[in-house]
């Protein structure tokens, strides 16, 4: 019996190089190109823009900021992305200043991210969601040989009982296909990690890989 590739494996192998656009210093895949490429491989793929149960609005709010919820279903598997409504500096916009245009743009960007969770263009988001750590400005300059590195005394110790752990765990789960080495390098730019925490991260990656393997076996 020939092995049937999982949806993630199929989509992650598609090159998006010719469709990449650039805005400022960032490369991105527009939602329209991502959607067209997805539908060309999986015509039955569906998008769902979630609406608030009580207001009927296509965004959610905590009274201070707003966010959207977009789901992409491929082969019966739905991946949902939550994305805050942000300004051009990627800062959350106060809900009183949110416009319909802001929400629409956020929905389209969230669409591209939800598609990426299925594998298409996922590498473009590498590092985008690594939780930021607020620290005082270092008293000494960072070595020019490692421009992205931070002095050890500015890093935060990552612990399972801290609020940062939930954010890191979500990042690791969404980017498990990158492997332990790449994910580890991203995280060590902001965190100090004990051997026990590194083992937890490795276990998270393994659980995602195992789940993907189970999906492949089911589809055979």
How does this model look, in words?
With 220 residues, the protein is α+β, with helices and mostly antiparallel strands. It has 2 domains: 119 residues, DNA repair protein Rad52/59/22 (Enolase-like, domain 1); 68 residues, no CATH class. The protein is 36% helix and 15% strand. The protein is built from 6 helices and 8 strands. The strands form 3 sheets. Strands 3, 4, 5 and 6 form a 4-stranded antiparallel beta sheet that branches. It has a two-stranded antiparallel sheet with strand order 1-2. α2 packs across α3. It is globular and about 45 Å long.
Task: Describe the structure concisely for a colleague.
The protein has 220 residues and is of the alpha+beta class.
Average the pLDDT over all residues and give the rounded result.
80
Beta strand % = 15-25%
CATH level-1 class of the largest domain: Alpha Beta
Q: What is the general shape?
A: globular
As a whole number of angstroms, the C-alpha radius of gyration is 19 Å
Can you tell me the CATH topology of the largest domain?
Answer: Enolase-like, domain 1
Distance between the termini: 8 Å
Structural class by secondary-structure content: alpha+beta
Number of domains: 2
User: Would you identify the regions where 5 or more consecutive residues have pLDDT less than 50?
Assistant: 129-150, 215-219
Question: How are helices and strands ordered from N to C?
Answer: HEEHEEEEHEHHEH
Known CATH architecture of the largest domain: 2-Layer Sandwich
The helix content is 25-40%
Strand segment tally: 8
Main sheet summary: 4 strands, antiparallel
CATH homologous superfamily of the largest domain?
DNA repair protein Rad52/59/22
Please count the helical segments: 6
